[in-house]
Design brief:
Layout (H helix, E strand, L loop, with lengths): L2 E2 L2 E3 L9 E4 L3 E4 L15 E8 L4 E2 L1 E13 L5 E9 L2 H5 L1 E4 L6 E2 L8 H10 L3 E3 L12 E3 L13 E8 L9 E10 L11 H12 L4
Parallel strand pairs: 2-4
Antiparallel strand pairs: 1-6, 3-14, 5-7, 7-13, 8-12, 8-14, 9-10, 9-13, 11-12
Length: 212
């Protein structure tokens, strides 16, 4: 079995600042990974991560813990959405995500048909929903937390385990998992409460006139 030691840095950055968390290799550094926050009105969210990385990559299957949740530190209930992707397309194609370590869904999703991807996700993360990349609205490509998140509460895990298959020593390269989180309030400008995440985000994005 071939082994190669590899140093990967780890960062966490919220909202407009991209969070980049190194997930493969040795000697992960977690310094400052939960210090950056962006305040927008009453919405204050933080990405929380729990890591148990392997000491080194090896050929074969590499399984490790990387639990991703979002905490609402604001004063109002809000809906959460998360974008998560691998920095290296080759690693993405050889990686899978899971919440229970048994049922995995592939990180490499079909950009035109995400039905299998979405179905597998709901097995291990039933509180989350993925809007396919083929969706014609600005909601496309994000994971959405279906439950309004109360102040000082945390979402359930989007994923908890990462499995990466290394078939050749040349595939032992540096890569990141980029995680980006946004929030919008559960009430509209008139104080009406949205019953589900989709109309809340559609209204918010139409008013903001932008998408990431």
């Amino acid at each position: 079995m071939t082994k190669k030691k590899l140093f990967i840095p780890l960062l966490t950055v919220l909202l407009a600042v991209l969070l980049s968390a190194a997930i493969a290799g040795a000697y992960f550094a977690d310094a400052g990974s939960r210090e950056n926050k962006v305040y927008v009105g009453d919405d204050v969210i933080e990405i929380s991560e729990d890591f148990e990385p392997p000491v080194e990559q090896q050929t074969g299957s590499n399984l490790y813990k990387k639990q991703v949740t979002v905490v609402n530190h604001g004063t109002t209930p809000c809906f959460i959405r998360v974008y998560a992707d691998f920095s290296d397309s080759g690693t993405r194609s050889r990686s899978s995500l899971s919440n229970d370590g048994t049922h995995f869904y592939k990180a490499e999703r079909d950009l035109t048909d995400s039905s299998t991807y979405v179905s597998s996700l709901t097995v291990t993360a039933p509180d989350w929903e993925f809007v396919p990349d083929s969706d014609t609205t600005p909601l496309a490509g994000f994971f959405y937390y279906k439950i309004p998140l109360m102040p000082e509460q945390s979402t359930s895990s989007l994923f908890k385990y990462v499995s990466t298959q290394v078939n050749d020593p040349d595939e032992m390269i540096q890569f990141d998992i980029n995680v980006y989180a946004e929030s919008c309030q559960v009430t509209d400008l008139h104080g009406n409460t949205y019953l589900s995440y989709r109309p809340a985000w559609e209204d918010f994005l139409s008013r903001s006139g932008s998408r990431e």
